[in-house]
Specification:
Its main location: membrane. One of its GO terms (molecular function) is transmembrane transporter activity. Keywords: Membrane, Transmembrane, Transmembrane helix, Transport. The chain has one domain: Growth Hormone, Chain: A. The chain is built from 18 helices and no strands. It is mostly helical and 427 residues long. It is globular and about 60 Å long.
Length: 427
């Protein structure tokens, strides 16, 4: 019986991991992969830069979450939203495949922007559904799987899809991405969401958005500050890693393998192992140490750049940074699930995701200004100092995290007996 329960949980985890992967690949391909194709077809730097505005919808997840939370169905509320939005995104990708790089640029921008809206929007019911269906003991693992899926999506979207485009033409990447989405829909449609939440009699009427209630949760205010600051400084260092490695004299092809493929693989492994470590030791205990690990990784990269170290030291520093990225992102995603209230999964998740994306976009702008003013070492020193403050904040937030994750690390069999409700099934 316990083996069947574990198998069902793994099927759920893999389904949500696949959904995170196929929703992330189109955005990454459009933002990070397609600019290379654009340059080959004569797009200017300004045109390519303006095209990055297609990623703007991610900042407004809190608004996209409102209709998902408010307009509910008696049976399979989040499941129906996820099915509809994923299907629309797949159809839009098929439509984009019928265009060409020589199509009017405004048309391409419109299609890419619409894809960004749908991918961002679909992410909300998918995560809300995961929060609903997964018991507390599975949420940290879900954060690790999601982080690993995003690292894999970065490898595929910014690398593999470019190779596919060069080998088979413009249509192939879009059709492959659409096929990945369509592959998940039958499994998503067979989830029994209503079985888990039959007690939610309010599912038949609109739920009001209550963001003030989110902030009234025990420990929510400290958690928000940690959410805003825990990842962006690492993310800024990762964003500028490739230019830094090039400036240190590393060949471009080696940079692509080290920071692109190798870093992505390390991030995947760190996401999975980091989530396992958090699950065993507890989020409240591990969180400060993960932030200390992030500081160590940044210090290693700072030392390598400052001392103009050998290639080996640069590679080690890059992989330390990828390790910290994977571990911290899996922790952040897992904790976001714990701070999403029952019956408010969509709007709570949307609010947290918007805040997470906002600082992830703003911090690199400040880091870039510091890079221009003080050079690579000066920028990295600034990121180290900021991360030192995050370490102090993580220590202060330990009690808040412990309150929110009190049942996160109890054994699965005890959790199941305590909850005394059937596990969700996916065929």
């Amino acid at each position: 019986m316990k083996g069947q329960e574990s198998a069902r949980m793994w099927r759920l985890q893999l389904l949500f991991g696949w959904l995170h992967f196929v929703l992330a690949v189109p955005s990454i391909y459009l933002l990070l992969g397609l600019p290379l194709v654009m340059r080959e077809h004569g797009w200017s730097g300004t045109d390519i830069g303006l095209f990055q505005l297609t990623g703007l919808p991610a900042v407004f997840k809190f608004l996209l979450a409102l209709p998902v939370q408010r307009y509910r169905a008696p049976q399979g509320h989040y499941r129906l939203w996820a099915l509809g939005l994923c299907l629309l995104l797949a159809l839009l990708l098929v439509l984009a495949s019928q265009q060409a790089m020589t199509t009017n640029r405004l048309v391409l921008f419109g299609l890419a922007f619409a894809a960004g809206v749908l991918a961002t929007w679909a992410d909300i019911p998918v995560n809300a559904l995961a929060i609903k269906l997964l018991p507390q003991t599975q949420r940290l693992r879900a954060g690790g799987i999601r982080s690993a899926a995003l690292f894999l999506a970065a490898i595929v979207g910014a690398g593999v899809m470019l190779l596919v485009q060069q080998r088979w033409g413009w249509q192939a990447p879009f059709l492959l991405m659409a096929a990945g989405l369509l592959l998940a829909l039958p499994f998503l449609g067979r989830l029994h969401e209503a079985d888990v939440l039959a007690v939610e009699c309010q599912a038949t009427r609109p739920a009001l958005v209550d963001w003030s209630g989110f902030f009234r949760q025990p420990g929510a205010r400290l958690w928000i500050w940690l959410l805003l600051s825990g990842f962006p400084f690492l993310g800024a260092a990762w964003l500028y890693l490739k230019p830094l490695l090039l400036d240190q004299g590393m060949p471009a092809q080696q940079v692509a393998w080290v920071a692109g493929v190798g870093g992505g693989v390390v991030g995947v492994l760190a996401s999975i192992l980091g989530a396992r470590l958090v699950q065993r030791l507890g989020p409240a205990w591990v969180t400060p140490w993960f932030m200390v690990g992030a500081l160590v990784a940044l210090l290693a990269l700072t030392g390598a750049v400052w001392l103009q170290a050998s290639t080996l030291w640069l590679v080690v520093a890059a992989y330390l940074l990828a390790t910290a990225m994977g571990a911290v992102s899996s922790l952040m995603f897992g904790l976001m699930m714990f701070f999403s209230r029952q019956q408010h999964q969509a709007d709570d998740y949307g609010l947290q995701a918007s805040l997470f994306v906002l600082t992830r976009l703003l911090v690199p702008i400040g880091a870039g200004a510091l890079l221009d003013r003080s050079g690579p070492a000066g920028m990295l020193v600034g990121l180290c100092l900021a991360t030192l403050g995050v370490c102090a904040l993580a220590m202060a937030a330990r009690r808040s995290i412990a309150q929110a994750t009190v049942d996160a690390c109890i054994p699965d069999d005890r959790a199941d007996r305590a909850k005394s409700k059937p596990a969700p099934q996916v065929s």
